[in-house]
Each structure stands twice: as structure tokens, then as C-alpha cells.
Amino acid sequence: MKIICSQSDLKNNLAFVSRAVPARPEPLVLGNILLVADETSQKITMTAFDGSLGIRASFQGEVVDGGTVALPAKLFNDIVSRLPEMEITLDCGDGREEDTNLVATLSAASSKLQINGMDGSEFPELPTVASDNVVELPINILLEGLKGCLFAASTELAKQVLTGVHLSSSQDASADDAFLEFAATDSHRLSVVRAFFNDSEVEEDTQSDIAENLTDLAVTIPARALRELEKMVSEGQSTFKMRYDNSQIVFEAGERVLNTLRLTGAYPPYERLIPATFSRQITCDRKRLISSLELVSVLAQKNNIVKFSLNSTDEELTLSVDTPDVGSAKQSLPAEITGEDIDIAFNIKYLMDGIKAISSAEIKMQLNEWNQPVIFTPLSGLQVTYLVMPVQIRN
Amino acid sequence: MKIICSQSDLKNNLAFVSRAVPARPEPLVLGNILLVADETSQKITMTAFDGSLGIRASFQGEVVDGGTVALPAKLFNDIVSRLPEMEITLDCGDGREEDTNLVATLSAASSKLQINGMDGSEFPELPTVASDNVVELPINILLEGLKGCLFAASTELAKQVLTGVHLSSSQDASADDAFLEFAATDSHRLSVVRAFFNDSEVEEDTQSDIAENLTDLAVTIPARALRELEKMVSEGQSTFKMRYDNSQIVFEAGERVLNTLRLTGAYPPYERLIPATFSRQITCDRKRLISSLELVSVLAQKNNIVKFSLNSTDEELTLSVDTPDVGSAKQSLPAEITGEDIDIAFNIKYLMDGIKAISSAEIKMQLNEWNQPVIFTPLSGLQVTYLVMPVQIRN
């Protein structure tokens, strides 16, 4: 195998696929990047795989001799990122001679580096999708949806289906207000985002085509894969293609491909958790609420609880925190309040995550009693519903 | 005690003194910042101390009631840095009522925070200097000197005097070419910097005054204290005052003071280590040498050794690294070479530290044999001599 390509193409694609390389590769060959050079198409393809997530990227280069080799990911990255921005030649025996290791030689100007590789055939094939379920998803809609809810997915592997984001489509909406719905919850809080197709960057005709194709969509995708998907945007692409069957999902954008296991098992019927009516409502400046929470959280120490006190007469929301033997904090901010005054307490971290994921200038908080779910929504922009359960106030 | 001051004054001075707060305070009171408010001078002074290093800073504020209190450093910092940029009132009982804790109340606009403090009298006094040895040191000279050698001091406490930088003055040089000499070594490498007074930013007359006062200077200062000293530069100050006796050193710049233990014991006679003559000399581009070392170091793995091969015929310096079972790297760069060709090897880290601390565009390397000390010097600018011992090449 012998290829000649630009340092920047090699570096960028390598950095992208390397995100799928596991920290503790098992089997060891997964600590490598698979490199395949195809003489006919003059294409170089790189693949990394951790057993569940696989990432693949291709780019054009000069393929003098086709072939395949697996190279240690970290070393390969470290070398390529330190080489000057110029043409790089990668040359590699075919490993046919016995008793010799497969050695890859990278050369550029006055540099020459050799690293021991492995036979490319030892690298496992990425799983394929057995059905021809293919949908197209506008990239900007997908990214917005993820931004608003990815953080709420559980990080505990034992929580299985909750470690993913549930993606579904509007069922009987007309093409005009068709949307994708994203939901994530770790059982303490829930974030639901509706991203409308007419906010997407694809053309109107294509929008309705896409929407029609999507009527039955309901898949749960691992959050880990979606975090990588956020970085996968390819130049000149406005949509991802998503192929899926009962066990695998494959995203494609241009020359970049991301494979992931699909999370199976029923996703909880989260719509039922969101109260239909509320007896109290508060509207306030979102950034001010964030900085107030940041200030009082300093005194929250371990229990991490903040109390919200509503004062409709003074149109004031007061946050307070009290940690015996350490100190206490109180911060008030102006707010429009309807409903009776009440004290209600939250875990600060859960509150912060959700309020930060909403991007409008003002935020609306709706609640019933101190022990019932509370929802936060933006006053404009992307339609996010963030639900948190309050906590009991110690007295 | 009651003071009113600006958030930024409080924040900046607090951040500065907090660098002396130990990670594991022993006794516990050292985890606090001592705050002293003086009604007469309307000055607020903050002090932190870790038992060996002490930092103190004062600033003007409105002192309504004088007094003193010790407040938990981390909490105090966290609060002040999150308060908005405006006037802050700090109010604190005098602790006279028994059975009550000393509580400090910080208030600003709609925020009110209370933290438990300790009686200021429990905070130890910073050590004082018993003699009237006082010298003045131009700040920019001191900073340049430190930049060129601080990194070479040992980080192993057991190496005692080597954990410091040795500061001495030119003995019999005329005022015109008077200098300060900075030396640091961890026994593997040595960096010596000569900083000349006529490069300083103080006026010429003052320069000679300062130089005359300095003729007998020879002190070893802990590197840890010097790292903080680098951050101590005060507005409108061009010199530090340094007071010292046999056990303590105190640096003063404007309203900022830094106290440190002095390292005792004879500093090794390092001048003798530097060879007087060399049989070989190489000059090359410094940045190119750094990037070449960075590239080949990727393949150096654990042993961390690079071989320099001199080729005077081709005017080329070749760096090479070889790690069995992993790979190898070779990188050549143009160099002016005098003397016979030779192979010589170094620890990459030691080499890098020194070459990075030198700031000229080109660097000169002088050596005799493969097992004798090598020195690196800049072709212009600050006078740095960096000495490293080569290592044996495995064959």
C-alpha cells in the first residue's frame, strides 16, 4: 500500500474517526485505526470501532498502490498532528513476508517516521443494517434538538434505554407543522424538544418529502453516539441519512459514516409526566436566574438544594440556600408571578442544566404544588419543555 | 468590623493572596484569609500563609468600623468572584458575645450572603525580618531572570537548596555592566541567566545606586515563592524591595508583600560545571529545533532519548529516536556546524525545557565529547547558559 495525501486531510479525518477508539481496547486491534486505500476510486478510508460505536470517513488522495493496514490510533494521531502542513507519503509493506512486522513509513520533507502496524484483515467489519429503512433528517434540526435534551440522558449504563435520546416524528400533523420530537430523561428530570421542519435549512419541497417519510419514526439512540454525531456535520450537506433496523443505526453525511447499536426496550411514556394545567406561573430573565443560581450555589455545599420563594406582591423571586456551620445565601430577582405565593425547592444541578439548555432571553416556570412536577419553557425560539421534580425542604 | 469596597478590588486582591493558602491547611486556621480593616488609614489588608510562604495585599476602601476576621478562603473567593461588579458591604460582629460564631455578611444590591468565620487573632503573624538588609531589584530584570531558569529548579523537597533559585550580583563589574545572576539546577541540568541592569526599566542614576547596594548579594530563594513573585507585579512599580536575614526573605512592591523562608546551605559552585572551551559548535533555527523534537518525541515513548547526529559536510543536524516494537523517527534540519561529526544523545524533556526558555531566533549548541556537558545559548537577547548532561546511547 502506498498513498500520498495532504497533512490536513489526513489529520482532520483521523481526528474525527479517532473519537470511536476505546480507551481500553478489547480485543487489542480496536486500539487501531483501519486504513483502506482503493486504487480504482483513489479514495482513502479510515475506520475506528469500539464494539458498539463505529466511525468511518473517506477522502480523496493519490493511491499509488491499494491496500489495507491497521495503525495504532494514538501514535498515528500524534505523528500526523505534528507533521508540517504539506504532502505526506504513507508507504507500507503488504506483510506477505513472514517473520516481519507490518511497518508503515510516513515521510514528509525531511521527516521519516516508521510505526509498527497490524494486518488490516484483523480489524472487525462494522455491523451492517439489515433492512432498507432509510430516512433523511435535516442536520440543523437534529443539532438543535440534541442541544436541548442530550444533557438529560442518563450516564448510568444500568439505566439502559434512559442512556439514549428518544427520537420520534409528529404523527398526524400536516406537512406545514411537521416536527421531530427529541426526549431524554434520567428519571430525575426530563427534556422534550420539538424541532419543526419549517425551521430547517432544507428547501420547502424537500421538507414535505422528508416529513412524509418520517411518519412512523420512533427510535432510541445512545447519547454517546449522538455526542459524536454533533461533530459529524460535513461540508455541503444539509441532511443526514439515517438507516436502521432492529439492532443498528447508521448515520451518513457525505463521506462520513457513524454506526451505533440501537437501544431496545420501550421508552417510558414521558408525555404523561407533563401536567396539563398549572396553578402558578413565573416569568423572569433567564441569564439573571442563572447568575443568581451560580452565586447562591456556592453556599449549597453537599446537599445542593436551593429554595425558590415566590412573592407576587413585590413581583420578586427569592432564591435561598442554607448550610448549617458554613453559611447562607439569599438573592432576589424581579419576576412576573401569577398564583399564590409558595416555597419550593430544587436540586441546583438539575435546574441549571435545563435552564442553560434553553436559549430565550426570558424563561417561564410553571408549577402546581411544592411536591409536584415543575416545567420550564422558553418564551420564544426552539420549543423545549424541561421538567424537574422538586425536592422536600428540610425544616 | 464593617467595610464597603468595590467588587473588583476585593476580587483581585483576594485572588492574589489566596495563592498562599495551602491545599491541606495545618493548623486549620491557615485555610482562611485574614482580613484586617484599619479605620485610621481606611485600608483593608488581606493575608494568607502556608507556614513557609505568606502573601499580603492592601487596598483602599471605606472602613466604617475597624476590626479583623479570618474567613474560609475558598468560599470567600467563590462568593466574591460571582458577585456583580459593584459596591460590596462586608459586615461582621466582633465575636464578643459568647456561644455565637463569628458571622460575616456580604451584601451587594439584592444579594445577601453569610459565612462563618474565625477570630482574626487565631491567625498566625507572618514572620518578620530581623536585620535591615534591604536591596532594590528592578522588576523586569527579576522577571526575565526567573523566566530563564525557574523551570530548572528541582521539585523534590529532599533536594533542599536545589529547590530554589540562587540569586547573586556581579562582584567587581563596573556600574555600566553590573548584572544579577540567576542559577537553578536539579543536578541533571543547569540554567544560568545574567540580567544586566542597563536593560532594566529604571533610570540610569537609580541603576548605579541599586548596583552599588547589591555587591554582596548571594541568596537562595524557594522556587515556589518565586513562581508567586512572578505574579506580584504591582501597578506603577518598577522595583521590588527585598529585605532578608538568615532565615527569611520579604519582597515588597507597592501594597503587595510576599514572605518566604530562605533556603540555607551552600549553593553548589555551578560555574565550575561549565566547560571553558568546546571542540564542536552547532547553530540552528530554534523554533525548527523545537518542532523537530516535538515530532520525534512521539516515538520516544518511555526512555525519552533522542540522538543528535552532526553532519558538517551536508550542514545538517539529524535527530533520531528508536523504540523497538513501536517504531522510529528521523528528522533533519539545516545547521551551521564546526568540529568533527559526532553522535550524542539527550533526555528530550531536559532539552526541550531549556530550548523553550531561550527566546532568540537562533540557538547555539557547544560540546566536546559524547559524554561531556553540552551548553545551549541564544545568539542574542538575554544571556542564558543552559547546560545538560548527555546520556549514553544504547547499542
TrEMBL record, chains A, B:
Residues covered by the DNA polymerase III beta sliding clamp central domain: 143-268
GO biological process: DNA strand elongation involved in DNA replication
Residue span(s) of domain DNA polymerase III beta sliding clamp N-terminal: 1-127
Keywords (A to Z) from UniProt: Cytoplasm, DNA replication, DNA-binding, DNA-directed DNA polymerase, Nucleotidyltransferase, Transferase
GO molecular function list: 3'-5' exonuclease activity; DNA binding; DNA-directed DNA polymerase activity
Major subcellular location class: cytoplasm
A Gene Ontology term for the protein's cellular component: cytoplasm
InterPro entries for this protein: DNA_clamp_sf (IPR046938), DNA_polIII_beta (IPR001001), DNA_polIII_beta_C (IPR022635), DNA_polIII_beta_cen (IPR022637), DNA_polIII_beta_N (IPR022634)
PANTHER family hit by this protein: BETA SLIDING CLAMP (PTHR30478:SF0), DNA POLYMERASE III SUBUNIT BETA (PTHR30478)
Entry protein name: Beta sliding clamp
Species the sequence originates in: Hyella patelloides LEGE 07179
